[in-house]
Amino acid sequence: MKNTKVGKDGAATQRENTLKGLTPASTKQAVERAVGVCKKVVSAFSNSWKTKRELTKAQAALGLPQHQLITESPTRWGSQQLMIARFLEQEKAVSQVLLANKKARHLVPSWQDMALLKSLNKALAPLFEFTDALSGEKYVSVSFLKPVLHLFNNDILSRKDGDTELTQAVKEGVLKYLNEKYYDPTTDNLLDMATLADPRFKTAYMKEERVGFIKMRAVADLVGMVGGSTAPESAQRAAASSSPPAAEEDPELTHPTKKKKNLGSYFKKAVQPSTHSPPSRASIELELSMYLQAPVPDSETDPLEWWKQHELNFPISTVEAQAQSKVNSLSPLDTSKHSHSPLSKHSLSSLAKHSLSLLDRSKHRLSPLNSRVKLCMADPDNSA
User: Fold this and answer.
1) pTM, 2 dp
2) What residues make up the domain containing 189?
3) Which of 116, 134, 152 is where one domain is finished?
4) Is the pLDDT of residue 30 over 70?
5) Is the Cα dihedral 136, 139, 142, 144 positive or negative?
6) Which of 185, 188, 197, 204 lies closest to 221 in space, CA to CA?
């Protein structure tokens, strides 16, 4: 009888050769089988208090964390990856308990199954936190898409030493899907405008050849927004605050008391009434240039709060930036609030579709109310 025992290096080589030999069809079947085995093992431990007790003893003996196995939930993002990660963490304790039970020995996963699960977890684990963060309701998140795509392509999902063929295939598949999804010119323009309006990123994650075009588009949007007889709201508020309040007529006060003048009153000039003339294109370009040269805030800064604090420094850009930030957030979209924006008619419809595409209809972290609102905001003519 041949000796089937191999060393650690030989086992690793054998696992690598096995993964390399998998075709796309066989890989899908093997992955489905490995995930199925993981589900059966988790189910066996969830339905037996004796098995849970033995698992606790094995964890204490092996020095593993006292963690229970996680069951996959079809309505929770990332629950399958969490199940696999916890299963891999408790692999030794789980195998020890299963081997001690004659009726459950058939559930012990093979080394092929473990190799596939490890490869899957290595590729998918970094994506869990990003998916959770991009599903936020109460903060601007779409302006993060360009930076996140850049991070995925250059770091998180790039090829690394030690990656198996399956891990590389999963990473390449995810990158291909994301890059093709946001390659559409309309979507690309929208994301670039969102990134430009975010003081944390500005033009840092744009292609160099597109920076000039996005600047020109931003200036054109601002000119269209503040052109005509309507001045920016921030400028109107500043003018209103600087103008003297109208004196209220009171018939009882026919002879008002004369106030004593101080030294400062002799140097006070009369305020001329403001004509609310729209700013010129040159002033808009200058303000945009000053905004792009302003210091970059911390990456965890709320962009809406930043614009609120710098409204006096950038009164024209603040109007557009706040409109962009409200549209770009993943909170429920309200077209009535953004009907004044040059991007409202086309961008809102496009953004609603792309925001919805980030969230599967059966897997999301949003509240039921906001999920229904998002589905109602979809284009009924083009939605499935």
Assistant:
1) 0.63
2) 139-228+279-375
3) 134
4) yes
5) negative
6) 197
